[in-house]
Amino acid sequence: MKRLPEISISSLPMVIALLGAAALAGCAAGPEPRRPPASSAPAPQEPVAVKPAIRPVVKPTPLPAPQVQPPAAPSSTVLALLERADTRMEQGDLAAAAASLERALRIEPRNPRLWNRLARIRLRQGNYSQAASLAAKSSSLAAGDAELLADNRAIIEQARRH
Amino acid sequence: MMILRRFAPPLLVSLLLMFSAYVYYLDVNVRSQFEGRRWAVPASVYARPLELYPGAPLGRERLLEELQALGYLRSDRPEGPGEFAVGEGKVVLATRSFRFWDGPEEVRRMELRFRDGVLREMVDLATGRSVPMARLEPRLIGKIYPAHHEDRVLVRLEEVPPGLISALLAVEDQGFYSHHGIAPRSILRAIWANLRAGRTVQGGSTLTQQLVKNFYLTSERTLWRKFNEAIMALLLELHYDKNEILEAYLNEIYLGQDGQRSIHGFGLAARFYFGRPLQELRLSQMALLVGMVKGPSYYDPRRNPQRALQRRNLVLRLLADRGEMDPRQARAASSEPVGVVPLKVGGITPYPAFMELVRRQLYRDYRDDDLRSEGMQIFTTLDPQIQAAAEQAVSGRLEELERSRGMPEGELEGAALVTEPSSGEILAVVGGRNARFAGFNRALNAVRPIGSLIKPAIYLAALELPGRYTLITPLDDSPLTLKWPNGDSWSPANYDGESHGEVPLYLALAHSYNLATVRLGLQLGVEEVLDTVQRLGVYRPLNSYPSVLLGAAELTPLEVAQMYQTIANGGFRSPLRAIREVLTAGGEPLQRYPLDIEQAADPGAVYLLGRALQAVAREGTARILDQELGELEIAGKTGTTDGLRDSWFAGFTGDRLAVVWVGRDDNRSTGLSGSSGALLVWRDMIRSLRTQPLQLVAPQGVHQVWVEPWIGLRSREQCPGAVWLPFISGSEPEEYSGCGAGNVTEPAANPLQRGIDLLKGIFQ
Question: What is the ipTM of this complex?
């Protein structure tokens, strides 16, 4: 039996990592802010010469400094579900751990950490194609989070070897 | 005499043998009934449970609606499970326990606080601590019945309230724990009691005899039948102990009829008549059920409430007389109303369209027999509140369309599906205008041309080639004619009959220009486009004629939902699912249908496509969405087919994907385009849901810049006509327009802008 490393993360470091990741994601990889805050100068609305005016698809917003706008941290519910997933994993009940993560994903479907955790569980279950897909999904939501992107790459790499 | 003496012993012996054989036959028979029947339970199909957690988009009214559907009781001081109280912006609630796949949900007394349609706080009243999450038990939405349509909710003896058992024994069989199956004394006592009362208040047969009688559903009252019953009752008592027999009785006894469905056992009767679990019944309600044993249809509290009330009060008096109940309690219970809940409409299930999907998915993995008799618990993905919104949107809007266009009533038909983009779970299925009617299920079975709904696949195929196509690549929208070798020709046209010259790619999609799209599709190759359709999850074989580029392809609404699911999920295909878990009758997990995803397209290209589909809803063919639902940043696509036969809209928000089809069953013209028909149904539906805005997340390798799309050049925020658009890194234009180039001090004039660009550079 091959033992896979970096799995036995107890819930506390996981939670800390998650909060940290969220802080990073909040300033870098979060969804595009949809409306400019009041402080930023609005784009001038001038008539367009050639064609009818087209509003920008998304108005960009100056990226706030991290300390100004706290990121949306994962909710206490998601943290509780993560803890439960960790407990189940320690008990070896991977299916139940996955179920908890799916429940968390229903609450925060755009949280790349959750997709990454689910990918890890599938990897440990030997479901390599799912592990790779889930890691890729995590990466598609994790732009700017170098550490998470690297971990997802490692999962995909490991999955390919099987 | 001699003859008698000579032949009697062998005759006696053979008679005895025959009798023994007969008894043996009865024994085998009754035992197989007893063993077999105890488990003939239909599979129960549940909706998704309502998840409670701080921050849940759940208003107080929605919670109350759910509690009502679950039969929770409003009381001033909610103590027992299934009770609640309502306060200003809050609900105090005692939940019921329920066993889910991933463990039990325990009984909890909680205070839930709401603000602005959001559940803000949950406090456990026992500990005073805040609760991170809880689930209500799911609504039962249907069953898969055995052929004879017997229905029951199994209860274990220890779950049955003692009050019910003592009432039952007092009324039906006082000597139950002492007799051996038949009780001559109790027959005499019954006769005496009936004489005294002047009418039949008590039966003479024991519970065991009644149970045997229930095994053979005939009401034949011959002596021979009575004789057989008596023997089988004795045999049952020989094989099984009293509690086993009592438990079987509680689950077996016939207590009513609902159309084809027969109501067996107290567990189901409690739900059928009072909408609550047996454990939560009031004394008066238990007394009524016990009273009904004697004649379920004669004492039916819905059809004969007066008669049922009298019977109930007679039982209560009897209990008081026998000392089984405090006389004051009995009097108080006697003054209560009958209190039955109205019969649910739809009989077997109120959601026939969704149930068809559930059955279809179940039959892949289970045998019909097992589904009908093993009492399996099937947990589905249906969200009853979203289902209700979808049904209402379809029926309400179709009526409105017919009225406003002077069409005959009932001419239009429709179908709708709602799913959750990230998981592929199906939240609602509407198969037609009359959602209660189990007729033709258009959502699953109507195969219709999809019109412009095919276009996103064409544009995705293009955007996956960033070297050749970007969102602002100019597409030629001039007329064209295709000639076939056999001399036929095809000249597609735009919906408005005009041609629009050279159009930036994303606007050609937003305005659904046919000519530009056909030219694009031909450049890419029809096979390539069909390959993309298949990658998105459509497995039906499609003809590779060029007309497929304008949506000659015929699909069901379900298949369309699968195709858009993959787009809404960032290029990751997830098979649409109606089932989450299957458990045995005892709550042991049998099977999970886990989240299953597969990368089907490049996430960067899908992100670009998503932005173009948002332009559809902002400035394109679905721009009416911008007026009231602009803040949701919806992405979607309209579809219209030749002669206005089919009207489609498929679109998604942050957490909901929905597909709507409107058309006629006879395939004639509806006079509706995608925007004047299906889109309105879609809008009504989304408006009545609580849904999150679509915040597309740009994946790594996507770079956003200001451009002037009509001239294809880089620009700046303050320049007229400048648009902020994403590009696969390296494919963005480098040359600046006149407006942008005027400023030489790149990258930005003010320090704030420079800081922003710097940050962007780091993180993108």
Answer: 0.80
